[in-house]
Records
---
Amino acid sequence: MNKSLRILIAFNEPPISEDVRQRTPLYVSYEEGLQGSLKEMQPSGLAEISVVEEMEAVNNALKQNGYETFVLGIADDAMAFIRSLMDFRPDLIFNLVESFRDEAIHEIHMAGLYELLGFPYTGSPPLALGIALNKWRAKEILSFHHIPTPKFVLVNPHEDTFGLGDHWDLPFPVIVKPASEDASTGIDEHAVVFSMEQLLERVAYVHTKFRQPALVEEYIDGRELNVAIVGNKEPIVLPISEIDFSEMPEHHPRIVTYASKWIAESEAYQKEKPLCPAPLSPEVERRVKSIALKAYRVIGCRDYARVDIRMNSDGDIFVIEVNPNPDISRDAGFMRSARVYGWSFEETVNRIVELAWERSQRK
């Protein structure tokens, strides 16, 4: 592997004040004051803070591996981002961008931009990112390939939701999510509903708050498993991680919510416990890994991704989501699985770089 590579780390920069923006270059080397500028940023969301922490950790790991790195944050000015990118002209982009102008859909467009400009980059291509973000499309593709996923109904904002009860065939309870968000955005303790009245109220909430269709899914009561995968031609399925809900209070559904993922002061965050490796029989582990790997491939993931799975009390397995751009910060579930496999954080980051670079050299 060529350790003389110039790697640019692209990430969605949290909003900062105009004063700081005027004083801070769009890209700076770590030694040239990145830490100082980040301290003055005013993040608009906790998930965005995580992206900054992820970027810092990846930057440190790449430097320890001997690469020359620069970081480039995109806030709300695409042209400034492009100009800085063209000025630096990296050999490879480590892509950590999850949104632009607070819109998750632009994650797809950023990867497309790298493609158009001819820069190799880590992670999945635009098509896979788009399929995964539009959850109902991903579920249609999974179903077509006979990969089990919860039954669902997509309710568009313009539909007459008051007529839903006349033709509703999903048994309650169901879970209601925004159809095209990530990072558990829009999922809270009220997302699981038990009646038509609650369903209509929750669908209206999603339509109003997120201005997009509501995905209504069969609720799979049971265990939640996360399967991290690394690789292309011969992907490695890392040890399975489980979210332990056993300490959750009775009033809280056994699901991963925005609060349990990002808000450290919340009861959900404190009560949900990760377990890795998950306590599974060899046969169940084999089935979970096989289904996750098939989902990884049919969605078109590349380099690394995470597949989220629910398993009911009968041992039936359902893919609930494929995340082609998962959080890879040091304390994230993905890296927990990597550590159990035997890789350090630095080794895992280096492996992702190697996979992306090898792909680019085959073209």
Note: The chain has three domains: 6-121, 131-135+141-147+222-240+276-362, 149-218.
---
Amino acid sequence: ALGADYIEQDIVLTKDNIPIIMHDPEIDTTTNVATLFPNRARENGRYYSVDFTLAEIKS
């Protein structure tokens, strides 16, 4: 084999516990959540998949 010690799985959960394929838990860089939900950012200004339902992320 190639000597890998682990496999990085790019799966994060939504607020309604649906697994989605995303590299990072922050979704503001790959979606339009900041436009659709401007008042839902965390204190650090970021938007996280765990704070949104799948339907909200897909909207």
Note: Residues 11-58 form one domain.
---
Amino acid sequence: MALLCLLAGVLTAALLFPIAGGLGMASNHASESVTQGSANIVGGEVPAVSTMLDATGNPIAWIYSQRRWELPSNRIADSMKLAIVSIEDKRFADHNGVDLQGTLTGLAGYLKGVGDTRGGSTIEQQYVKNFNLLVNAQTDAERQAAVATTPTRKLREIRTALALSKALTKPEILTRYLNLIPFGNGAYGIQDAARTYFGIDAAGLNWQQSALLAGLVQSTSSLNPYTNPQGALDRRNLVLDTMIENLPERADELRAAREQPLGVLPRPNSLPQGCIAAGDRAFFCDYALEYLAQAGISKEDVARNGYLIKTTLDPKVQSSVKQAINSVAAPTLDSVASVMSVIRPGKDAHRVLAMGDNRGYGLKLEAGQTVQPQPFTLVGDGAGSIFKIFTSAAALEMGMGINAMLDVPPNFQGTGLGDSATKGCPPKTWCVRNAAGYRSPMSMTDALALSPNTAFAKLIQQVGVPRTVDIAVRLGMRSYADPGTARAYVPTGDESLADYVKRENIGSFTLGPFEVNALELSNVAATLASGGMWCPPTPIEAVLDRNGKEVDVPTAACEQVVPEGLANALTNALAKDTTMGTGAAAAGSVGWGLP
């Protein structure tokens, strides 16, 4: 008893003066630390699940670091509130954040050598400890410090708990506590606990279910109902016994609950985590996260902040894209990646409706899976003849008409345009030939549909490589202007691919031999269909925070990159590619009929 009295005086002094016997400056710093800590805990948010939706409102993926769904008090069953208070802090309604009697008992044990200062932890103190562990701690050292069994941590915890009790009401504290604490099997917070063990919402918990969950808080590992059902049942019944003692008016109901079996699901529910569980929509999911990261909302932010991410993905278009891609290349085809994106044109935004890859998104290499962002980064050996669009656009910009007649020789040889490995081609000469015989001359419109190589070799010689490259970048091939993108061809230096091609005056650019970002190439079509208005290809319609407030997602402004007349003329000319020539044949071979 004398020891407890002595400790009472020490504890009071510790609460008033954070560092006993220290310099005034040290005391001030400690006090400031406690004040800052309590402010962070009162105003801070706990990690919560972010949900990514498609354009119809159906989930694509869930992204989280801790599987938690925050609830208001009125969506948590009263039975759960009563159960947790009965077993964890029966004097919760009466104290000011610290249960002095229990705390002194714990400190006495520590000084006697027991080494355990957990005695008497109130719900406020547990909240502080768990918040520091689950929210504030970012390193192993910080996590160890958050649970260290030392008087220093305990006293700091007490000070913060007192401040918390002054800042919040008891119902607010209890709600926050139930939303924060872990319940085992990956469940954080009462809502996910109810879903994990019983497949219901927290509002529907009955007496025995609430008692089981309240009992798990003591030790989620040793009382796991799936590995230790008897221990979990005994603990649940102990919780019910305390409730019978504290709630005599509900004793009959609680005794009846005591006779019930555990009642948990055959196996704990879980929630798919991340893009890897999004199936055919995984590459789109990955792009959406990368897009947000570029806008200043990092993947770590998404995993912690409980966002509702509304995307532009159209599930019907996505399904059609995947079928078309797989018709061209099987998922397990070695060394081949067939990718495709569909973008809706617009003057104010270019919305990505679908994105696919013949290879599945995942880590099973034997099944052809990959997590490389192939659909939206520079990959592959080039897009081929579609790059003839850029040479045509450059010619139109110089004043040439869309129906201008082009020479189509069987073979072309040009100097100063790079060289080629074609058999019989002279040194330092670019040699081009056609895959078939074509009439000559031919209108540019027909040339775009039939794709004779020599016509466009002569055209890029006429309009110039630099002009062609520049208009390609403007129309949408923006990665080509990024520093370092020439490294696949020039291993050292930070030269962009665009600058490299212009410096070397590589005429074969018109035949599309270089790495390509397939998403950007799709966006070129959207730019032309939008009357020459380039907009960044966006997968995001809106992002809402956990309170339903829209989050700002900065993005590049749309730009008029070519005159509308030029864009319309080129778009009309390309319409022939849907009824004749190489484009129509390719689309028809896979049954692709969407515009």
Note: Residues 103 and 120 are 5 Å apart (CA to CA).
